[in-house]
Structure prediction request, 954 residues.
Amino acid sequence: MNWQPNRQRDTSLQQQIVQWITALVERGDWVAGTKLPTQRQLAMQFGVNRSTVQQALEELKAIGLLESKVGSGVYVTHNSWHALIQQTQPNWQTYIETSIHKPNYHTIQLINEYEQREDVIRLGTGELAPSLLPTEAIEASLRELSFQPKALGYSSPQGNDHLRAAICDYVRKRGIVAEPQQVCIVSGALQALQLIAVGLLEQGSIVFQEPTSYLNSVHPFQSVGMQMVSIHRDEQLAQTLSQRKRKKQAVFYAIPTLHNPTGQVWTSLEKKQLYEACQASRIPIIEDDVYHELLFEATSPPIKAMDSSGQVLYIGSVSKTLSPGLRIGWLIGPTTVIERLADIKMQTDYGSSAISQEIVLHWLQSGKYESHLASLRQHLQDRAHFTEQILQGKFKDIATWSKPKGGFYIWLKFHEPLIDKEFFMKLLQQQVLINPGYIYDPQDHHHIRLSYAYATYDELQEGLQILHKCVVEALLQ
Amino acid sequence: MNWQPNRQRDTSLQQQIVQWITALVERGDWVAGTKLPTQRQLAMQFGVNRSTVQQALEELKAIGLLESKVGSGVYVTHNSWHALIQQTQPNWQTYIETSIHKPNYHTIQLINEYEQREDVIRLGTGELAPSLLPTEAIEASLRELSFQPKALGYSSPQGNDHLRAAICDYVRKRGIVAEPQQVCIVSGALQALQLIAVGLLEQGSIVFQEPTSYLNSVHPFQSVGMQMVSIHRDEQLAQTLSQRKRKKQAVFYAIPTLHNPTGQVWTSLEKKQLYEACQASRIPIIEDDVYHELLFEATSPPIKAMDSSGQVLYIGSVSKTLSPGLRIGWLIGPTTVIERLADIKMQTDYGSSAISQEIVLHWLQSGKYESHLASLRQHLQDRAHFTEQILQGKFKDIATWSKPKGGFYIWLKFHEPLIDKEFFMKLLQQQVLINPGYIYDPQDHHHIRLSYAYATYDELQEGLQILHKCVVEALLQ
Prediction:
């Protein structure tokens, strides 16, 4: 989309724009129903005045190629498109609308889109800042790698044997006893959830989760027809689980350590209670433990460490600690279950990147990973402290929060329910991107997930200032 | 599973085996319904006599932990398992059996399993031999890579921008005109099919394919409820398509260049006929073109090159040419469709390995890829020639085949319908692994997909000799 009209040509700028858009529709690149960028965006892209864009669009509307929808924008029409290309193209829009997998929520699509821009302050991003990634050390480790030719072929279904053995050694320090055949390498934790969804659950199965949940911002279970049930962990948990489970399969999804988005860390007792409540109803637990390496202080072992009967599917990853670009995580569970999920992974993508697996193996075995983690935790703690100080100075009359125990996030709660789509968009117009609480709990308009892991110190300062101004304005309305 | 009983211990070997198996069941590693390895396999693993294994299994059957099913094998019982662990473990077997995704066919699971073994001659493997992979050159290229820190973060939804631009340049040589926003990087061609299945089709959608099809050996569409319809490409094609399509969405899957498994190459006319027949019914075409770089002689452009209205979804990959371990392929189609599929990919695995993407970019841009391909084609041609000579000497009275035009395969057709599961297993007992025709067409008992790409020359010689002997034996029965 980097095309610009050529000022040297005889054809007018407006006419060149008309021809360019017509060509996009003709060759099926903009299908019927496509929403055009705003006039402002197009003018910027083309490097022309907005009035030139406006006149070009009017011309295209006049010939019936485009249409305006009030308050919504300009779209490629269904009619004109048919006329233009004589009903030969597949009706892609219908294909998209009737398909199985749901699109991301609009807010999340916008987040994905704006995270690609350089000029946006990202206050919510669940990712290490580029400066915190050990880029040079990873580059250096590439120079130390050497492969057996077989390593570059198709992987074994469960992933690199040496890596699986190294992961067993690694998780033993967390109190987890596992054998390599109980480990499957996955392309990140999200893929582990995807495999569990299609490999262990049927349509209509229940996925229990806490009311505020990372799972509401992604769709691995919803997209294949599972029912999400929010449940509070209280004294009635065991009873509620047994009542709600009934005849369908069920599974409990939990992030007991540095919960996303709330940052909470469960006590040992809370972990035990969940384990026992699920055991009583024979409900498997998915323990998502991708943040535990980022704890500022040691905590009790994960639920998986108390699992004596193969009830817990445990998920780990290097995405939050080393590099999300590697796309390497792991899933630990009973051998039969792991073999089943590995079989599906083979049918899905024939395994994860062999090179990425070799890199992670090298980092685990050489001790580079552990020493990197020590320095990373210190950086994150400094960032958390810096951010808290800003909050303390500016936000203490309008919001509350807990001191972070590790990871990336402060779950910032405003006194008033201000955080809606409009508020999100208003900040976006000022180049500040937040992760609003409602993507984790549709009912929640009090919270934002503030991340101190991604933005620079200057950006944190500036972004929080803009956030503060918008909140104050909203309060005055 | 490398455990062996310890001969130094006071406990008898038999008793140690009983305890080991009990522990596996207790800790949920062998769940109810698990089939045990054969006595012969267990005896080999344990390094004990088969009678010792037999006595241990009898003891476990006596206490009700295991049970024999006649003609099928020994299984972990449902009862004893309940008794042992007091109904606390989730009933994993039920989870697995009722879940959405189908397991691989047993023959394919066996192929996946035996492909991991060193002592097996692989006559069917659709993969380059380790000696054909440019391992050292890939290692060397790792030393030349340097990353922007952002490159190691989460990828943009459609994948590395530079790689997508390089792919556009690359496919232009095939006559395909595409812009980077029409390209989505995927973790291999199979993932592209998976994304199309859930992102563009609804349950019950029709996937048209040729009667003999790679798609019958994998499940991207079947597992999400699509209906596979085999169709012959003949003069009635247009009519058949329009009749069969009716109200459901439909898509046509084709491998026009070096078809898997048959090795066929369509003529320009055949491609045009399919394109027009599908256009008449507005059916999108999935053009799987992962083998075209391996053509021994140039052929006509792909269907995508004649696609003027965004009707063809084009799939490419480096898995067959550079390294399957990289897990990098690409999908090219109309922008709206690509954005949709990229959105789903973000929900599935947050993108492909950043390092793998950088490697492929480097190989494309530096010209290393093209010069590697030239040498690879020569190696494959030599291997094809060698294999044909063996066939000419030994198989010409019992089978027919066509001279390969490129790629990996000879679609070897035996005069008699000998190739069934029993034949497959018989060869496997002699450490020879084949890809029988029935995994590509359940009705087909005449063919095997012979690959000259994987086995060494010696192995090809020896494997084909064993294959010949088995065929002759079967003919005499």
Remarks:
- The domain at 133-366 of chain B is CATH 3.40.640.10 (Aspartate Aminotransferase; domain 2).
- The two ends of chain B are 39 Å apart (CA to CA).
- Chain B has a mean pLDDT of 89.
